[in-house]
Design a protein that fits this description.
Rossmann fold; seven-stranded mixed beta sheet; binds S-adenosylmethionine
């Protein structure tokens, strides 16, 4: 069986900024393969607790295996459910919470999950395999206007109209079922620019739409006060400008209200060495806020 790994991004910086109480309660909103969780637990005391959330049950099973620590409670739920899960556990706010957005290398590299344009697989792209909406449904059933809208809003794709038209034309010939079919459709109307494949933004847009990624970020930014207690901190690692803009603006708004303060005025980005060892980290940005 393939042993999947995921190198946690900005792990020591996130731990330095978030772990203020060695025996506190923490939330890992995006447990993934447990990279951050394992590292955080290595820096916490024996009575600390960590609630790890993921929409992906396959990831949760691997995280439990990788972390193997009784201080971890792994929950199959969206991180937007964290307020309720903490409340049900009788916890009145966490000392710290981390949200490491996007997808894990396991999801990206496993062709069966349909996220990668480098690997042929079914057009799936769901974080949660029990959710009804797949990328295939969007590509085969959504109308032109909706396709164009998600390509523009979630992919910041300049050729959204041409790509949406090409998808509509292709699906009249038969169902679009695989990542490589979709990749070829995009290649037929958009030509590559430099190192970025012409279908990169289309794949990003579909993934964001399938998983309502921006909706989840928006929701969690509204309920942070129900996740962290006073003097608790929340940190968010983003990988693209759409998410980073949302986090930056909301954090500024919260800080200007006086109930929160920005812990880092400037965004925390990986050092050269981290990017060299883990190229996936190159676009990562960490912002941390503290509840006053
Ligand atoms: C970048 S990975 C996290 C990797 C993890 N920090 C590690 O070090 O192994 C992001 C994870 O968040 C999960 N995810 C994305 N959106 C989510 C949401 N709204 N609720 C819970 N999990 C989510 C994905 O399924 C994925 O496993």
């Amino acid at each position: 069986m393939t042993q999947w790994t995921h190198i946690p991004v900005l792990a020591s910086q996130a731990a330095d900024l978030l772990l203020t109480n060695p025996n506190g309660v923490y939330v890992d909103g995006t447990l993934g393969l447990g990279g951050h969780a394992k590292y955080f637990l290595s820096r916490l005391g024996s009575s600390a607790r960590l609630f790890g959330f993921d929409k992906d049950e396959e990831a949760l099973a691997m995280a439990r295996q990788n972390v193997q620590d009784a201080r971890l409670t792994a929950v199959h739920a969206s991180y937007t459910q964290a307020p309720q899960v903490l409340k049900d556990a009788g916890i009145n706010g966490a000392d710290g919470a981390l949200f490491d957005l996007g997808l894990s290398s396991y999801q990206l590299d496993n062709p069966q999950r349909g996220f990668s344009l480098l690997r042929d697989g079914p057009l799936d792209m769901r974080f949660d395999l029990s959710a009804p909406l797949t990328a295939a449904t969007i590509v085969n059933e959504w109308g032109l206007a909706d396709l164009e809208r998600i390509l523009t809003e979630f992919g910041e794709e300049r050729n959204a109209h041409a790509i949406a038209m090409a998808i509509m034309a292709a699906r009249r010939q038969g169902k679009i079922e695989t990542t490589f079919q979709l990749k070829k459709i995009v290649e037929s109307v958009v030509h590559g620019r430099g190192k970025i494949h012409p279908a990169t933004q289309t794949f990003q847009a579909l993934r964001i739409a399938v998983n309502d990624e921006l909706g989840c970020v928006r929701t969690v930014l509204e309920v942070l006060q129900d996740i962290v207690k006073p003097s608790g901190r929340a940190g968010i690692i983003t990988f693209h400008s759409l998410e980073d803009r949302m986090v930056k603006n909301r954090f500024k708004e919260l800080a200007s209200g006086g109930a929160w303060r920005l812990v880092n005025k400037h965004v925390v980005a990986p050092e050269y060495e981290e990017v060299r060892q883990n190229p996936r980290s190159r676009s990562a940005k960490l912002r941390v806020i503290e509840r006053v």
